[in-house]
Structures are given as structure tokens and as C-alpha cells.
Amino acid sequence: MIGRLIGAELAGLRRSMVPWLATLLVVGGSVVARVLAWVTHAIGRTELGSLPFVRPNVGWSDVAVPLALLAYLILTAYVFGRDFEDGNIDLILTAPVRREAVVVARTLVIAAGALALSLMGWAADIATHALLAASPLDPGPATAAAAALASAIAGVATLPLVAWAAVRFRGVLPALGLGIAIQVLVLALSGVALVRVLPWFLPTMLASGGGVSVLSVGFSVLLFVGGIVAAIRGLRGVDLYE
Amino acid sequence: MASSPLIEAIRLSKKQGRRILLDEVSLSVARGDLYALVGDANCGKTALLRALVGLARPDTGSARIMGEDAGPSAYRVFERVGFLAADPPVRRGLCVRRDLEASLSLAGVRDAEAAGRALALVGIGNLAEQPAHSLGDDDRRLLGIARAIAHSPELLVLDEPTRGLGGVERRRILDLLRMLSVEREITMIVATRVADGVVELATRVGVMRDGSLVAEFDRDGLRERGREHVEVVVSDPPRAALVLEERLGVTDYAVCQEHLIRIYVPGARIGDINSALVGEGIDVTRLTVNAGSLEDLLERLSSGEADPQ
Question: Is B78 close to A95, i.e. CB distance below 8 A?
């Protein structure tokens, strides 16, 4: 059953522009981060501390991370929300498949997609690094890889929350709006120690070499599992009387 | 022993804000029935069908389908149930055949010919390679019907399968429903407007109005009720019955409600009836002639002009 559902999801994504948009955001983010490092060095900057929006310990990877998180957010909102907008949810809910399996299959597809995209982002990063002269402002390949992987993990950890919103509010845009609002809120509150254990900070923590606390991992797992349960409950309780 | 119903509503009620979508609706459809659910737009047909297949959640009451409580846990029944929504969706970016194959794949059907057969049955085999989203409303409905029947279900739940179809397409779908009902013995519940031709095929008819099921007939009962007759509301029905029999020689009548008598007489003997009753001191408060059209009867029942009893 899961296999059939994964096949249906992949078929749906193949004929959509959304995977291309997600790829553009992730790969583009990696390339832009490298190019910005190169440009910064070319115009004579030798340290990052005085640049706005760029934290010295993470460097230009900070550009790639929010773009990657946005890509995973768009992918999740689309996969879980589009059926409510085009009416195809009727086809899913009157097919002989468990609603739990629908959520699990879609989660697996997005998780695999996020990991694949992070690998592509990292590959783009390495390729750009090879093309452009190395600068002291370049994030090292290890830093970039950690940021890319952590972005994917953060995307996966938070995807069920977005999935729940797509099911609860029946569409792509409400889920997208909620996801972006949470990300902005979390970034705005980044000074608060407790907020920094949230999954959205995993990329920064890993890329800066700061390590990840047990609390942070635990919270990510909790958010993931809780989100999955909420999304399943939402899909089981969906009420489509028209 | 009678077999248990394939689909059943038990005192289903549902509100949307202040609007009553369903009001204590109970019905059951036995194996082999073709149940036509008749009513105007917004009378609750769609909400009822969607509750029966588990897409809508009733506020109170329950729905059962193929012996299981309708809802998320009854997902397996859709291996044996086909559903047509009022506005059938299509999958963007797929051709008609692939769209249908995607549904069959979800249903676990591996028969490579099933999609082609279903499309041919509904008459859109020639559109198989067209993009599904480019279909007009009529062809989308036909694709929806093909989707509902492609996996050879035992039970079909169809929401207005002939709505908006032209004469040829409508005739084809009515013939298809007749074939599925009679030859393949598929049980059906079909929501329909009165004049859509489904009623003529039905073994049972339910009439909905304002969220309530106001009348139910079997085939004979419907024909009986649809015969030309005079309805008379009188102050004293037992005496009126006596007058009808003894003075007018009328024996084909029915006392339907406390004061309502339905008299089946060929030709309008309305004047004789009125004179005889009034002459015996019986008050006549209403006297109407019904011309005997099934469609007219159902129209008047669903609009509230006719008495459901």
C-alpha cells in the first residue's frame, strides 16, 4: 500500500514545477553563498564580522540555510495541500488505502526529496568552490556540508507540522504561511536560549561547529512524531460535506 | 432471511453553521437495489452521499457501508465500492487513460485493460490520450463514472451522474446504469434531479427536501402514487369513504392521513365528488386533481407542494 502511494506521489510531483522550484532554491542558495564569499573577498573584505546578516562563525552558509528550509517548506505544503485545492482529495479518501499510510508515504517522499536536494546543494557548493578561487571568507566544504545536511534534517523534523497545517486548513497557502511565520518568529527570537533548541537552529549549530544538544535532538524528534500524529488525526477527521 | 443493507444511514444529522444539511435522515439500500435519491439543488443529497462514503462526518447518527461504519477505518470497502463526486476531479498533467490508471493503481487493480474497457463503456474511449484537465464538464463527469466502475465494484454511490449531459451522453449513461443494475446486479444509490431519467430505472426512490428524507417509494408504490388521482381533504373521512362507495361507486381510493383521501378515478369526476360529499354535510377543505406524471409528482414532492404521505 505504501509503495502504491509513493508511486502516486512521485507521479504527481513529476508533472509539477514545485520540485524544480525547490531544486532552484537549494542549489541556487549554495551557489549564491559561494559567489557572495568570492565577491566579498574580491572587493577587499577580509573578515565577516562587520557584514550585516552574516554571522562570522557560519559565514555565507547562512544564505543557503533559509532558502533550503523554504524549499522543504514549499515541497511539504504542496504535497499535503494540493489535493484539497484541486478536489483530488476525494480520489485519495475513497481509494482503498489507509489515511495513515497516505501521511507516511508522503512524509517518506518529502524526506527522501529533502535529503536528495541537500546532496545536490552540497554538490553545487563543491562545484562552485572548485570554479572560484578559494577565499578566506569561503565556508569550508565541511561547514557547507554540515549546513546542507542539517537543513534537510530541520526540514524533515518540521515537515509534519506543515503537513498538519495543510490538512487542517485544506490547502497549500495556509501551510506555507504558517511555516514561514514560524520560521520568521523563531529567527526573531533567536536570542532566547530556549528557542535555540528548536530544529530550525540545527543548521546554524552544526555549521558553526557548536554541536547539537540532546535537548535539541529530543525536541526535533518530538516535533516530528507529534506532527505526524497530528497530520494523521487531521486526515482521519477531515470533513468534506460538499 | 433478508440480507443486511449494503449502505445505510441511521438518523444522520449535520449542520453547517445555522444551515441544516441533514436532518435525522435514515435510509437503507439492499443488495440489488437501484435507489434514486431525488431532490432539488441544496436539498442535502450530496451531503448524505458524502456521509455514506465517509467523506463527511455527521454531527449525530451513523452511516454504514458494506457492513462497516463509514469513515477512515472502512477504507477497505473501496475495493468493492465506486464513488462519483458531484464535481468529479481530474489529475492535472495526465492524459485521461493515465488518470484512470492512477486510480486503478491506488485500488490495487493490475488489469491492464480495465481502464480502456471503462472508458469505452462510458463512451470516451476516443479521448483516452487527451490531457484530463482539458476535458469539459460533461467529459469530466464521464471520466468520473469510468473511474467509479473501472474496478468492477459491487456498490456504486453516484452523485448526479447525468447532470449537464447532452441527450446522447445521458441516454448512454442511463443505458449503462440499467445494464450495471440488471445484468451485473450492481447495487446503486444515485442522487439525481427529478427529470434526469434515473427515476425510471430505480427500484426504490427517496425524496429529499431541506435536508430531510420526506418520502420513500418502491417501484410499485411510486407508480401507484403517480397515477392520475384526486386528493380531497375532508372533515370526516370514514363518512366520506362511505359516500364515495355507496353514492359514487368508487372503490379505488386510500385514506392516507387523518383527513386526506386519495381517489384514483379515470377522468375528472371532481364535480361529482364535491357535490356528493358536501350534500352529505361533509366539509371539503381542499380538492385537487393530479394529472399522473411521475416527474410532476416528484417535482411537487421535492418542492413541498405535494404531501409526502
Answer: yes
Q: B56 touching A, CB under 8 A?
A: yes
Residue of chain B whose Cα is closest to the Cα of A97: B75
B160 burial level (CB within 10 Å; 0-12, 13-18, 19+): buried
- How far, CA to CA in Å, does B228 sit from each of B116, B132, B288? 46, 47, 11
The count of CB pairs under 8 A between chains A and B is: 80
Among B21, B106, B110, pick the best mutation site for testing chain A contact (most A Cβ within 10 A). Answer: B106
CB contact under 8 A, B89 and A90: yes
Q: What is the mean pLDDT of residues B155-177?
A: 90
Full-model pTM: 0.82
Interface membership of A20 toward B (CB under 8 Å):
no
Using a 10 angstrom Cβ sphere, with 0-12 exposed, 13-18 middle and 19 or more buried, the burial of residue B167 is exposed
Q: What does the pLDDT look like over B187-219, one tens digit per residue?
A: 999 999 866 778 888 899 999 999 999 888 888
Domain boundaries, chain A: 2-236
Assign B284 to helix, strand or coil: strand
CA torsion A111-A112-A118-A121 (nearest 10°) is -130
DSSP state of B53: T
The side-by-side arrangement of strands in the sheet containing B212-218 is B81-84, B155-159, B187-192, B34-38, B204-209, B212-218
Cβ–Cβ below 8 Å for B47 and A241: yes
Orientation of helix B96-106 relative to helix A2-14, angle to 10°: 160
Nearest-by-Cβ selection for A91 from B51, B54, B89: B89
Minimum mean pLDDT range among A124-128, A156-160, A204-208: A204-208
Distance in angstroms (rounded) separating the CA atoms of residues A203 and A153: 8
| Ordered structural domains, chain B, with CATH | 7-220 (3.40.50.300), 228-291 (3.30.70)
Residue of A nearest to B81 (CA): A94
What b-and-e string marks burial along A126-154, b requiring 16 or more CB atoms within 10 Å of the CB?
eebbeebeebebbbeeebbbbbbbbbbbb
Nearest Cβ partner for B53 among A94, A97, A236: A94
* ipTM confidence score: 0.81
Q: Is A49 touching B (CB cutoff 8 A)?
A: no
Comparing CA positions, the residue from A63, A59, A51 lying closest to residue A27 is A63
Which of B135-155 are b and which e, b meaning 16 or more Cβ less than 10 Å from the residue's Cβ?
beeebbbbbbbbbbbbbbbbb
Residue-by-residue DSSP string for B168-214: HHHHHHHHHHHHHHHTS--EEEEEE-GGGS-GGG-SEEEEEETTEEE
Best CA proximity match to B150, nearest among B182, B170, B128: B128
Beta bridge partners of B250: none
